[in-house]
Amino acid sequence: MPNIRLKTMFGAATLSVATLLGPTANAQSIAACEQTIQYNLIAPQADVPEALRAFSGVWTGVWNRQLCHVLIVEQVSKEGAVTAKYVYGSNPSSNIRPGFRQLSGKINGNTLMLRRDDVSMDYKLVDPATLAGTYSRAGNGQVTGTFKKQ
To answer: What is the full DSSP assignment across the chain?
Structure first.
């Protein structure tokens, strides 16, 4: 009998995890920008407007034709709040090593805005498959890039 009870408890634990993640959670990884990044896409709820849900997903490209960049928009709320991973590759001349940051942001109109310290990253939705990005650092000017949805 203890085996049956243990199996039932294990089944309940598995069910609880599945319930927390829900059917919309989609754990994945991407090998890009000299690293492998784990991420979890959460499909936007039905009440999220299409203009906002269009940002959800994985976007790849380069800043200034030289620095690999992946933007992973993991979650979008109906208010336009975003959770994203900002992934970047190396640029030895600028002493940049591959890495990523977990960031929160906001969609305003057709632009996703991410902020960190003195850095602004804005991504304008050009069409359903393209973002035009601008990366600005206080006192260092800005770079641009085009990012395609994967």
So the answer is: -HHHHHHHHHHHHHHHHHHHH-TTEEEEEEEETTEEEEEEEEPPPTTS-HHHHTT-EEEEEEETTTEEEEEEEEEE-TT-EEEEEEEE--BGGGTB--EEEEEEEEEETTEEEEEETTEEEEEEEEETTEEEEEEEETTTEEEEEEEEE-
